[in-house]
Amino acid sequence: MKILVRLLMPLAVIVGATVVVCARLLHQDIRHLALPVALVVLLVLAVLWWDLIRPLSTIVRWMRRFRFGEPDAPWALPRKGFLAPLAREARRMAQSLVAARAAAAEEARLRNAGESRWTPDRLREHVRTALKGRPLVVVSNREPYVHVRQDRQIRCLTPPGGLVTAMEPVLRACSGTWIAAGTGEADRDTADAHGRLRVPPDAPLYTLRRIWLTPEEEQGHYYGFANEGLWPLCHIAHTRPVFRADDWHQYVRVNEKFAEAVFEEIADTDEPCLVVQDYHLALLPRLVKDKRPDAKIALFWHIPWPNPEAFGICPWARELLQGMLGADLVGFHIQFHCNNFLDTVDRMLESRIDWEHFSVTRADRTTWVKPFPISIAGPAPDASPAVGAGQTAKEAVLKSLGITARWLGVGVDRLDYTKGLLERLSAIERFLDKYPAFREQFVFVELGAPSRTKIPRYQEFEASVEAEIERINRRFQTRAWKPIVFLKKQHSHQEIAPFYQAADVCLVTSLHDGMNLVSKEFVASRTDERGVLILSQFTGASRELLDALLVNPYDIDQVADAVQYAVTMEPEEQQARMSRMRETVQEHNVYRWAAALLTELARLRPSPAPAASPLQLPAE
Asked: Per the domain annotation, does 130 fall within a domain?
């Protein structure tokens, strides 16, 4: 009302004075004009009230309520008239303030809780600051998207594996370029002349740069040296590694091919930041550093690192170490593998090891060696427990399989001898022998993805798994039930999710694993906070998921007892264990992993190229 009086008083004075002046000029009696003047004044006041005073008062009241944090006013801000632009700007300002208040409240909550949750947005801003606007380049053998032909159409698939599961959310958040080998039959048809395309297909966020390998290069580099040599060597899974000179020759060639692609992508960038992934590209850091000493290079090794005696089996162990030490930063999942790596370098190369700061110095350059436990994107922070979701999912899964059972176990693996599948099957058999009451009540579903089928050892292993499943089923099955269901194919994340959500128990029995992300995916999927994880003590994940039932996968009776304990565990204990594990996965997610790795890399000053001569191709 005060605003109204202040606005109308000057106006009334002006109108009255104007009438008096006009009356005198026209020699009219002012009294004769009183009624018309009053009507004019009232009309003017009504118009001003409706078009100016009323909407302005509404805006003032709305802003006052908003300033004091009261609920949104029941009246709407004006959307028409000459005050509409002011109202529109007020709404925009309010939206900004709401977002700022929410962010401040969340930050305060996290600070009070002593935690700091990483999200894609936070990682994006952090990387932009840490890398000072320079693009991130990631290099791996495996690509995040594969294009294949199916039913006369080209389809885009996501290949299985922990590396893609972990790195793809990071590239989505950080943008940049992912360099990888093109392996799909339709990959060339979907990339440009330089092998580039924008991905993901539905909402492009970063660039995929494909390089093309010949069949001989793929056979020698990937199937030969990397997976018949380095893979069994590093996993110590009682499969003899095979090393052939021809395979080493192709391994060096392919690493050089990747290096040429890297040089093209970083040609116009000063102090580029490069993250090299895994054992397929151990020589790449040195190859890049020789030509681009200003590059900041991190190498992340996704698989275990063995002790010096085991690694010394490799005829080209020194060359591999020299290649890896071209990086400014070498990362492993756990400290134990860092220690093994430093021990190996200390034994095989002339260098100075700083055990206090975990670094290797050779000539004038230093490589830092640190643990960075990798993870997944994790459950949504605001995901509330979905009571009964697991039971509903279990009924649907069992119905789809045509099986009646009370308890459901699940395993999700590549068909690899390091995953402990044969030991797991023996434990299921022992469980049914030791606890016969669970026969016809418990079913175990193995989702097995064929892997590296061109390697004889993998062909033999796959046949052994199928034969063992058939033997156990023949022994126990009835007309309406069998203990083990084997679903052999490449399963998408969408196909796997219902099994995670339905399982009473998930078995991860790796004989040796750098991390194992299946365990974390299972935990993240359980919005109902039910289900039990049985986890091998020989996985990197066992250092974080302490509320899992930790087992020695070679101890068949221990695993069998763990299955019995899991399916009979009280709901309260299940919820307590799963809730704590979900919190761990949520807090230690892949965005936090990427932030830690890239922060460490960004703070390092690029060391000069190694003093030794560059790597040379082996003689033909």
From this structure: no
